[in-house]
Amino acid sequence: MRILLADDHAMVRDGLVPFLERLEPGASVVEAGTFPDAQSAARTHGDFGLAILDLYMPGMNGLEGLLSLRSEFPTLPIVILSGSTKPEDALQAIESGANGFVPKTMRGETILGVLRLVLSGEKYIPPFLFDYREGGPAHSPAQPPATGSPLAHLTPRERDILEMIVDGAPNKVIARELNLQEVTVKAHLRNMFRKLTVANRTEAARVALLAGVSGRKSLQHV
């Protein structure tokens, strides 16, 4: 799969490329620093499986760039990557045809999970947008999920483990970070899978991402 990565900050591109190359075997990344360069690359190659666009890079003109690319390539999965956490930006991007809106504060492993979710045909809406659309303040991470959430029956410890699964952490790392034995982590995983009606970690992470879980930590750079 060929991936188009367009961002005017070379440091951001350098940080993301190694993660993007792990999306699937043989994945390759074509970089662009402006929207006109990204649009030219899309027209030249024509076989991109995914496009990632910075919201405020030169030439985007707000969401005009997204609308233009969506019109020209209607089936191309497009994800907006942005340093903005303004709900208005995320909402307008989704309504303009983006398949997902990813804050740059998100961990690299979590971004991978989000991109896999998008490639499976889902849309990714960041948790802060749910709060905005419902007209309420952002929820504290310590608050339990809403009753209707698929995560409502998880214990706090299972929630901790699920958040680390979203980040791609293996059992050994989870055990060390939470001061547990690996056998205890495995027991929690079995219970969690049963409650979520999933068969493995990948399916559990997918449920978590759709429910708005974005991992335990965030980084300014990936």
UniProtKB/TrEMBL annotation:
CDD domains, per the entry: LuxR_C_like (cd06170), REC_NarL-like (cd17535)
InterPro entries: CheY-like_superfamily (IPR011006), EvgA-like (IPR051015), NreC/VraR/RcsB-like_REC (IPR058245), Sig_transdc_resp-reg_C-effctor (IPR016032), Sig_transdc_resp-reg_receiver (IPR001789), Tscrpt_reg_LuxR_C (IPR000792), WH-like_DNA-bd_sf (IPR036388)
GO BP annotations listed: phosphorelay signal transduction system; regulation of DNA-templated transcription
Origin superkingdom: Bacteria
Every HTH luxR-type domain range: 147-212
Protein name: Response regulator transcription factor
Annotated positions of the 4-aspartylphosphate modification: D54
GO molecular function, one term: DNA binding
Pfam families assigned: GerE, Response_reg
PROSITE patterns in the record: HTH_LUXR_1, HTH_LUXR_2, RESPONSE_REGULATORY
Annotated Response regulatory domain residues: 2-119
Keywords: DNA-binding, Phosphoprotein
